[in-house]
Amino acid sequence: MYTLGGMHRRRLAPIALAGALVLSPALTACGGDSAAPTAPASQPAAPVKVDVPTWMAAAQSPGTTIIDVRSPDEYSTGHVEGALLISVESPDFQQQIAALDPSGTYALYCRSGNRSAKAAAIMAEMGYLHVYDLTGGFADLDAAGMPSA
After folding, report:
1. Which DSSP symbol is given to 36?
2. How far is the C-alpha of 45 from the C-alpha of 98, rounded, in Å?
3. Which of 58, 59, 67, 110 is catalytic?
4. Is residue 30 annotated as a catalytic residue, yes or no?
5. How far, in Å, CA of 120 to CA of 83, rounded?
6. Could you give the domains of the chain?
7. What is the pTM assigned to this prediction?
């Protein structure tokens, strides 16, 4: 048997195979025709800013949770039917969001789109991957015929 640095030649094959397996994903990623690169897991997912028709389709899909991030006073004057009130201005907003399933789908709205954008960004930082943020606000949903309470 030949030795290399004190190792028998028979033992080099498994070591070489293990090295090839470790390098294989890195070499594959260098190919020009491979799939588009994905963001590193450490980066938060970007929330999706959508128009009224897209938001309504997402909100009416089974399993989507609708969240009104306005103030309790605004919510009491009218809100999307079935929407949870989780005010982004509440000091415990993150704790309330943390009680939700991070793998769920969420449709957020406010009055004009500013607070829902803030809430969507916070949710993305917390690891929520499926967040639809309405461009516009409750009045736009109401005008489009979204059921309200």
Report:
1. P
2. 16
3. 110
4. no
5. 16
6. 1-37 (no CATH), 48-143 (3.40.250.10)
7. 0.70
